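task queued by scheduler; priority normal; single chain, no ligands, no partner chains; default sampling; output format set to structure tokens
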Amino acid sequence: MVADPQWVAYLADNKGKFVAQVNQTIRPAPFWPVPDQYRNGPANFIDLRIYTAKSGHLADYFKLYEAEGMKVQLGHIGHCIGYFQSGDVGPQHQIVHMWGYSDLNDRMKRRAGMAADPAWQAYIKKMTPLLATMEVKLVRPLPFSLIK
């Protein structure tokens, strides 16, 4: 990439414009893919979640999620665009997952239903001690995106 003239020009044009840059590789979660019926659906709004597990607890998170959280979450939310874990480049111990919604009201309704579910509440009590941080971002796919 360093020898690519377009890359060299890009770097020269943007020198001093970036305050910070983070690169990261991610790979599919151990249980991916989820069943087909949960991978299709509307994605006008995407709930992008990045959780950082406490050191040494990433495997514990996935084991607990697969055993107790996944069925409940898929049942309420439905459209799982992707579920990943950090690779060997960039921030470590991370869980990255994306959920599709038709609109913000759809998101609020589905998440409220899940939050009220006793099985989800029991799962959350076990899951949150495994995490150091949680980030939630709402994003919209651009017109050329394969995610619709």
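post-processing summary
- The radius of gyration is 18 Å.
- The longest helix spans residues 58-76.
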